[in-house]
Each structure stands twice: as structure tokens, then as C-alpha cells.
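Chapter review: from sequence to fold.
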Amino acid sequence: MSFSLSTRLPRLMLSLPGVRSCSVAGAQQTLRVKERIESARARALLGGGEHRIAAQHKKGKLTARERIGLLCDPGTFVEYDMFMEHTCTDFGMEKEKYP
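The C-alpha cell string follows.
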């Protein structure tokens, strides 16, 4: 009679000391990281902030994300590097941070 790893794994995990506490701590850490990512995503979606979005709209323009939303079918555009920040130090740009 042979046992596969998948049938033995749950028993092996239960026999390890401290697995339950590590799992709870790991889950809590995962939730904290998830919250930080969601917060960073919300800041990134605002671009330069509400005042910059309002300035674009006042000029009769759309933001880049709004233009992409009109151009692409829903759910087809995937934005990479949403969390990147510029590293420019010319013309006082080191004082300006845009998420």
C-alpha cells in the first residue's frame, strides 16, 4: 500500500510544533500587506491628486487613466508599474512626489 504526499501532508503539518501560531501570524501579516497595497493603489489612482484631476477637467481634458478607459474594452488593460515614482531631481522635482 503506497501513500501519496498529498494524503500525508496534512498529517505532517499537524505534527509540526507551532504551525498553527505561524499560520495565524502569517495570515495577519498578509492582511497588513494587503491593506498597504490597497492604500498605495488608491493613492496611485488619484495620480497627482484631486486638484490635478480637477485642473485637467477644467481645461476640458481627461486624465490618462480616463482616456485609457475609453480606448480599451473593460477588463482588457493591465497597468504595470502603478506604484513607480519618479526620480527626477531637476527643476525642483525632488520636492514633488506623485504616487
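Two observations follow directly from the output. Residues 85 and 97 are 7 Å apart (CA to CA). The two ends are 58 Å apart (CA to CA).
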